[in-house]
Amino acid sequence: MELLPRSPAEFGSARYWDRFFRQRGQRAFEWYGAFPELCPVLHKYVRPRDKVLVVGCGNSELSEQMYDVGMCEDIVNIDISDAVIRQMQERSGSRRPKMSYLLMDMLQMDFPDAHFQVVLDKGTLDALLTDEEEATLAKADQMFAEISRVLQVGGRYLCVSLAQAHVLKKAVEYFSQEGWVVRVHQVASSGDNQQFALPVFVYVMTKFRKIPGSAPQILEICPEEQDKPMRVESVERLVAAVKDRQHYALLCSQLSKIPCREQVSLDLCDKENGKPRYTLHVVDSPSVKPLRENRFAIFIIPQGRETEWLFGTEEGRRQLAASAGFGRLVTVALHREQHYEGMAGIQAELSGKVMELAPPGLPARQQVPFLSVGGDIGVRAVRHHDTSPLSGEYVVEDVKGDGTCYFRRLIFLCNRNVVQSEARLLAPTPLPGQKKRRKDKKKPSPADPPAAIDKSYLCCEHHRAMVAGLCLLGGPDPLPGASLAVLVVGLGGGSLPLFIHDYFSQAHVAVVEIDPSMLEVATRWFGFSQGDRMQVHVSDGLDYVAKLAAEAPAQYDAIMFDVDSKDLTVGMSCPPPAFVEKPFLQKVKTILKPEGIFVLNLVCRDAQLKESVLATLRDVFPLLYTRRIEGEVNEILFCQPSPEGRRDPVELGARARALEGALREPGRPWDSSYVLADMLQAVKIL
C-alpha cells in the first residue's frame, strides 16, 4: 500500500489526504511526539477554560488525550480531508460532546477574529513548508496570517515540529517581526520508545499588540521542558541553538546503537550564559573485553591538566581508556571560566546527561563510576585575564600539577588547549627575620599556590631540546663561560631566554617580540627582566632579521625561533609560514656566524607542508639535525651553515655531558631530570 506522496506539493492536497486516511483506516497516525512527551509543555500554555483550535488535526489522538485528562475540553479540530473529519466525528462525537471536528482549510478559516486563546499545530507547518519555493512561502505567510487573525491578544500558537532550519527560521522571523514573544521548547524524549532520532520541538508564539517602531525581539529557548528559558539575541542564534541540539540527539542515537570507531568530541554549555562548561570525548576500546560492570565509566580530568598528552591527545585518551579497562570511557575536561562544586557536584550535574552517551545494551539502572586522578578535580586559579590587539584574549593561570608542584601558564584562548608558556612555581620562603606564626592554624588554601618563579626549571620539553642544541656550536669549548651572542625570536613567558641568560654567564641575549603585551606579561607574571646581557626589541621578527642582514651580518652564535602562528587555518602552528620561506631563511643565515647554529621549533600537522619546509631548510643550511619531542607534534630542527660542523652521536654525547657538568655549578639550582645528553640521544641528521 503506497501512502507516501509522489511530490512534496501533495502534502497540501485534500485529495492526497483523503486517499491517505481511507487507506490507513482507523489506526491513529502520529507524525511525532506522543502525548506523554508533549504533555509537560502543553500544560504550561493550555488552560482548562481556553478555547483551542487544532489545525490539520488528521486522525491524531492528541486532542482526544487532552480532552480525556481534563487539560481542556473546548477544542475545535479542522482538516482539509473530508475522509478523516468523518472518521474523527464518528470516533469522538458521542464520547466527547464539547469537542468538534470541522472540514476547513486553515488558509481560509471561517472563524471570527480573536476567537481562540490557543492554536495548536502538530506537524502541519512541517507538512506545508516542504521547500523554500516562492509559492510555498506564500502559503506559509497565509497560514500565519490566519492564525494571527483568529488568536486573541495574549493567545498562544503552539507548533509541534522537527524544526528543520528553513521551517523554524520562517516561523520565528514572521512572528517576531509582528512583535510576538517567541520561545522554543525541546521536548524530552521517552528513551527507547522514541520514534525519531531527531528531537521534537514546540514553538510557542505569544501574541502581543504590535508596537510602532523597532521594538526589541524577544527570542528564547528551553533546552528541556524543566529548564528555565534562555534568551538569545537573534533569529540566527536561535536556529543555531536548535541545530546544536539536533546534532547532539543524532550523536546520542548513533552512540547508543554502535561503538564509535573514531573519538567523538562535544561541548556541554552553561545554562545561564551559554559558554562551554564541559568538553567531553567519547572513547571506545574495541580490544577491551570488559566485565559487565566495567562497560562504561566517566573520567574527570583535573583542572589544568587537560593539555597533558594523556588527556589532550587522541592517542593519549585511547591509552587511558584501555588501561582503565572500560569498553567506553567518556573523558570530561573542565573549563577555566566556570566554577565547580567538587567531584560530588560534578557527578550530580553530569550523571543524567552522560547516560545519554552510554554504549549499546547498557542496563538503564546500572551504576556508572566517575573516575579521576587522586579522586579530586585539581586546582586552577586564573591570575590575569586580558586581551591583546595582536595575540587576542589570553589568561595567566596557576595550576596544580601531578604531586605537590604548581605551575604558571600562559594560554591564548583562541587555541585554549595549547600551553604557550609554562614555569614552575617555588614554595614561598620566610623573609630574613620573619618567624612563622605558630598560633595561626589556618591552612594555606589550595587555590592560592606560591608565586615565585623557579627560573632553573624548563617546563617545556622543546625548550630543553633547544638549549641542548647549543652543544652543536663550533669550537672546542662551548661551555657556559664562553662569550655567546644569542638571538631569540618569540618571547612568550620568557623562560627560554631567561635560562640561557642565567646559566651561560657570558651570553648576551637579544629577544624579538612583536606583541608589547607579552613583554608586560613575562615581566609581571613570569619573573622576566632586562639588563646588560638581556635586551628585548618590540618588533616584527621578519623586519628585525631583514634589517640586521642588511646592516650587520654574521653576528650571532645562535638564533632560536619559537614563534606561534595566529593563523589557525594553516596546518603549521609554529612558526608562521613567512618565517620558513627561502628568502627569509637566507637572511637568517646571513646574520649567523659560519660556525653558528639556527634552532627552529616546528609544529606542523600537515605532512606535505612539513616536507616542503624541510626541503627549503636543506636548500639553505647544508647541515640539518632533527629532534622529535615524544608525545607532542613539536620537532626541533638544528640548522648549521657549514657541513664541516657535522658531529657523530658519541661526540655529541661527550659535548652534552661536558656542558651539563659546567652548568651544574655548586650552589646553583639544577633540575635533576634535565639531562642534556638524553636530549640529544634521539637527534637525527636529515
TrEMBL record:
Residues 50-170 form the Methyltransferase domain. One of its GO terms (biological process) is methylation. Residues 434-444 have a biased composition (Basic residues). Keywords: Methyltransferase, Multifunctional enzyme, Transferase. InterPro entries: Lys/N-term_MeTrsfase_sf, Methyltranfer_dom, SAM-dependent_MTases_sf. The keyword Transferase applies. GO terms for cellular component: cytoplasm. Residues 429-450 are annotated as: Disordered. This is eEF1A lysine and N-terminal methyltransferase. The lineage of its organism: Eukaryota, Metazoa, Chordata, Craniata, Vertebrata. The gene is Mettl13.
